[in-house]
Specification:
binds iron/sulfur cluster, 6 strands, two-stranded antiparallel sheet, YkgJ family cysteine cluster protein, alpha+beta, elongated, Puta_zinc/iron-chelating_dom
């Protein structure tokens, strides 16, 4: 994990906790197949960097042997392609695909400081501090309006018999 990812992940987790507002995954898959052709794998909370960790992962999760290491990205993390990816960019083992694929894009990717491809049909939607402040101020305005309205109604109301007798 790079320092930038580490910092980004920490900041995202901190912000979500403080605001009580977890990230949401929105959008839908465009079936472009990009995320199956150039893969970073998060294993035990760390992006795979060493071949021996990769071998340990396959020993533990034999279904992951479909992922073939093809190099490293500029940050030094191992990159993989998938043997189950068909030439038409569709998964040839869709029903048996691993949880990594079933859950993609997972919130843990976001909280680990990861990003989605710009052309992905999904995106992460997280409330910012600025939006939270605006939400609170707007909420207060709404509350004030409701209160004023109720007070005005109360002032306009004729006292009922029961009110005057008590
Ligand atoms: S198993 Fe299927 S969904 Fe998962 S990376 Fe491979 S081709 Fe894509
Ligand atoms: S990159 Fe995004 S849109 Fe493309 S196949 Fe993967 S999840 Fe779907």
């Amino acid at each position: 994990m790079t320092s930038l990812q580490l910092f980004t992940g920490l900041f995202r987790r901190f912000r979500a906790k403080v605001l009580g507002s977890p990230v949401r995954v929105v959008g839908q898959c465009r079936m472009c197949g990009s995320c199956c052709a150039d893969i970073l794998i998060l294993y035990k909370g760390k992006w795979l960097r060493r071949k021996r960790d990769c071998e340990a992962m396959v020993r533990e999760l034999p279904g992951y042997s479909r992922f073939e290491c093809v190099g490293r990205n500029p940050d030094g993390f191992l990159t993989f392609t998938c043997r189950s990816l068909g030439e038409d960019k569709f998964c040839t083992s869709y029903e048996e695909r691993p949880s990594l694929c079933r859950n993609y894009p997972s919130k843990s990717l976001y909280y680990q400081g990861g990003w989605l491809r710009p052309d992905c049909g999904y995106s992460f939607r997280a409330e910012t501090f600025r939006q939270a402040i605006r939400r609170l101020l707007t909420g207060r305005d709404d509350f004030s309006k409701v209160l004023e309205e109720q007070l005005r109604k109360g002032g306009d109301k004729e006292p009922s018999k029961k009110d005057t007798e008590s």
